[in-house]
Amino acid sequence: MTDQSLGPCGMRTLSAPVPGRCLMSRRTFSRTGDHASQVRAYVIHELGESGFRAVADDAALLAGELASNVVRHAHVEEYEVAVAVDARCLRISVYDRDPRLPVVRHPGPDDESGRGLLLVSALAEEWGVTARNGGKEVWFSFSRPSRSHDESRRTASRSPNGHHLPDAGGLDAVPAPRSPGASEVADGVQRLMEGLAAGFGHQPRTPGGVSWLRVHHVPVRRLVTRIVRELLTPGERDPSAVQRPDGGAPEEWLTEEDSGAAEYQFPTVTGTGLAYLLGAAEMGPTQADFSVSAHEPEALHAVGQWLTSLAEPRNGTSQAVLALSWSSRHVETLRPVLDVLACRGVSSLVLDASTTASQRFHAVGSAITVRSMPDSALTVGGGPHIPVARGVPAAGVVRVGANDVRLDRLAHLVERFLARSAGCTQPSWVAACRTERLIEGALRTVAPRVLLVCNDASPLGLLAIDAAARRGVETALIQHGAWKAEAGAGSAVRSRHVFVMGPRDVPLARARARHPDVQVHPLGQPRYDALLRATSATRAAQARYLATSLYAATGRNPARIAVLACQPFGANRTALQVSTAVEGVRRAGGDWGLVLAPHPTQSMSDVRRWVPDEPSAPPVAVIDPSVGARGCLSGAQALLTTSSTCGIEAVLVDVPVLELALPGTTTLRLADLGAASRCANSTDVAIALDDLHHHGAAALPPAIKNAVCAGSGDSATAVAAVLHDLCRAYDRP
């Protein structure tokens, strides 16, 4: 057996822990010999001077049981035992490369085995199973003996085999802010949306017959989610207090966070807005909430001129495919497919609804025509006049945490929100009606065989899909981003043909599908084709970029670099995301540095503010959001992410992924597939990075990669082949 000590100064026996420093030791054991007694002796020895002597016997017993399970059930020649200690907690894990997960058994009174995990469950404060590096890690933990058992906290999660297993807690020096659980938020959002739909969701409707709430479901749900998070987070704001910053009129109910990108908008309800929802403030409706802009005739005239221009002979005859795009991701997803179709003689027209130059779809070649929507199409135009018995609470209330939200007031607040909305992701109600007219006209003029979109849940995509369905045009959606199981009702899929990344997404697509004859095609992601064809020179260039960024920021050249793909969370969750990564890198052995890659909607300062300025901090750099994790991840030795699609990209290019399962967040569950290491706190991050330092990155089996994202650089060709067949079927008599 081999010994690898990970504590400072190469010490082999763990000494009393220094606050904030995680001391670790690991040893590899062979399945031959008296393995259980060797493991027990190792644990007893390691804990001799650690301050955990009182629980050392129990810890040694449980470690021996887990070792016996490996020898009895896993098809491996060796396994690894790791001991980690900090000022608060002891954590012991047993890792082997057999990916099969253990099952808790309930043996009979005469059975001589099968009690190992039951014993672990009975004695340990917390325990669980984590898929890691193509194998599995079974772990358990104890708090420092001076801490009472009642003060320890168990947090249960469900393992892939269906048993409830506690998450890795303890061992985390970074205090997590109180965040409402994902299920608690989802429940509150769902009940508010159902109440809004039942009481107020039927009228008004677009000229095409689509209800206002169906059109605006995604942005309204986004707003309601913000409201629920505010109500479930105590101490952040007193919703019963009407805030008057100048002692005069109440502040606005809604504010808009500066997202930095037009395709991302983040509405926030102020303290006054929350007070109004809960009945603690009174403010009557104003005509401006739902009146049509005085400039509406000009906007409609511009739409009419645009449609007339589209029908001119110089713009060519009808195109087989009509595509809708409004973001750079749509461009990256659609262009490879349309290029392949062009090579096969299939023409296409792209309706570009983007509102900023960086998101534009630029035409290349004669077979792809791009027409930008008129600027006035998506300008502010007024909100829906929702029939509301204003001031009458009989419309109903919904309980959210300790608060009763009045549905009539929620409907009124949504009116205001949709009156002031603008842009491609959350247009105002009047702008949505305008856009429906434009899309209807384009379908009538172009007469396509297929309507192709990358998003059919947001207002523009939904209006396009519904309009195409009314005209009998085939509808197709290419999944352009990662899907999470928790999104559920907020992410319905309405197209008939749905192209998803891989088998992982097939059940999610079917669960979300609203088309009665939906066809799901797991053919990969066209915008990843170039990624899979990238050369070693590209990887080397990105590695140099990371090293240069760290040296410029810190003057240090760490041996290994991890990248955190940041996500546009609120302040508390962003702080937790960054501090967990920083603390995990600090605790890990192996000379790691950390690069923080802001999301395109974030600024560098949004992320940098949470980096600790202290001598013990690891080397940390923040890079330009325009580069982001996507522009540098292939040069890293590890990628940390909660639910970014960069995690999928990292899997495809063999960069190890650490999936941050932090409080109040949801993940892509890549760890459930064995494609990532699940990290619930900074200690899990430290252990995973330390494992990479000592063992390197294990190549993922092709089957795991394929489950995450199918294809090997030819997804655009595969998607185009299906669309080509649809066009030909349409032309057959």
From TrEMBL:
A single GO molecular function term of this UniProt record: protein serine/threonine kinase activity
Leader sequence segment: none
Disordered: annotated span: 142-184, 235-257
Keywords, alphabetical: Kinase, Serine/threonine-protein kinase, Transferase
Entry superkingdom: Bacteria
One Pfam family from the record: HATPase_c_2
Keyword NADP: no
Occurrences of domain Histidine kinase/HSP90-like ATPase (ranges): 35-141
Gene3D superfamilies according to UniProt: Histidine kinase-like ATPase, C-terminal domain
Keyword Transcription assigned: no
InterPro entries (alphabetical): Anti-sigma-factor_SerPK, HATPase_C_sf, HATPase_dom
Protein name: Anti-sigma regulatory factor (Ser/Thr protein kinase)
Species this chain originates from: Allostreptomyces psammosilenae
